[in-house]
Amino acid sequence: MLAAQKCNEIKQQVTHLLDEAGCSTMNPLSIRDMVRSLSLQLIPYSTLTEQEVQQLSQAFGGALPPGLLLHEPEGPTLIWYDDTLTPWQQDRAIAHELGHWKRQHCQASALAEEEAEYFGQLLIEQLQHMPKGTRSKTLYPRQTTINTHATTKGMNTLIASILLLAGMKAVYDITKTLTRESS
To answer: Which carries the bigger pLDDT value, residue 132 or residue 59?
Structure first.
């Protein structure tokens, strides 16, 4: 459970992120539009080759997490996500990775995962509460948010994140390959 001070910090960061992205009740954005407005790159897993998926899967203990964040100090910040998930699950994974980015997590830990999960949950809730007429560009129905750390999927995400350090080299190598090929 996060301390009240951490929760308040994260709430402020979510508000700041929404402002930074230019998202408001007058200018609602989908999570994907937010990512693009922040000059981050979204990359669906389906764009990876079978070999790259296999390398990443091995680095993460056999299964890819719903999302991955790669931030290179002198390169682009990439958010990879599992595009075989439902749009709702994809957006939750992207919001979670935005939490890692905004919280400047450099190492995988249970605390980092809890903070990113809380950040993502708050961000999705904020986007859900845009006035009904302005939510047309979003994919967020109003629904109850659950704490995914209490679910098996949440535990899988936590385990995958702990393996993140081992997987970073594989992610880095694949990113370099993709960058060279797209040039």
So the answer is: 59
* Average pLDDT rounded to a whole number, residues 64-81: 88
State the distance between the two ends of the chain, measured CA to CA, in whole angstroms. 45
pLDDT in tens, 136-157: 343 444 333 333 333 334 444 4
Secondary structure of the chain in HEC code, one letter for each residue = CCCHHHHHHHHHHHHHHHHHCCCCCCCCCCHHHHHHHCCCEEEEHHHCCHHHHHHHHHHCCCCCCCEEEEECCCCCEEEEECCCCCHHHHHHHHHHHHHHHHCCCCCCCHHHHHHHHHHHHHHHHHHHCCCHHHHHHCCCCCCCCCCHHHCHHHHHHHHHHHCHHHHHHHHHHHHHHHHHHHC
Cβ-contact 30, 137 below 8 angstroms: yes
The token pair that represents 163 in the structure block? 């393996």
